[in-house]
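Researcher: Go.
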Amino acid sequence: MTGASSASPAIAATHVRALRLARMLWEETDAERGLTMAQIIARLGEYGISAERKSIYKAMRALRSVGLDARMLDGTSPAEYAIVSRPLDAADLADACAAVRECAFLDSARREELEAKIGSLAPAKAAAAEADVQGERAADPSS
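Model: Structure:
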C-alpha cells in the first residue's frame, strides 16, 4: 500500500516537523537573523508538533539534504538557526519590486499583484525591514 495512509504516525510526525521547520526558517530567518532552539521548539508546539533538540537537529540535516542552506549562525549566543542563502536575497527581491513599480506597460492592479507575489518570497523579517526602508525613503524629501 502506498500514500500517506501507509506511513506510521511517527514517520508522518517527523515529516510534518521538518516541513514546518523549513517553512518557519524560510519565512522568518536570513543570514543575520535566526531563531533559537527554544524559539523553534515553542513555535512547533504552537502547531501541536512535539520536538526536542535532537529531533530539530535531525530535521535540519533533512533540510540540508534536499538543498536548503539551513544551519546555525556563527557567533550567536544562544545559538540561532536559519536558512542562510537563497536563490534570491532580500536586495534582489527589492530590486525586482522596484522594477515592477516602474514598469509602464503594466496596469496598477497587475503591478500590485506582482509586488505582493515577489514580496512573499522574502523572509518576513527582511520584508518588514525593506518596508521600513521604503517608508523612510518616501518620507525623506531629499531621496
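Model: The helical segments are 9-28, 37-46, 53-65, 90-101, 108-119, 124-139.
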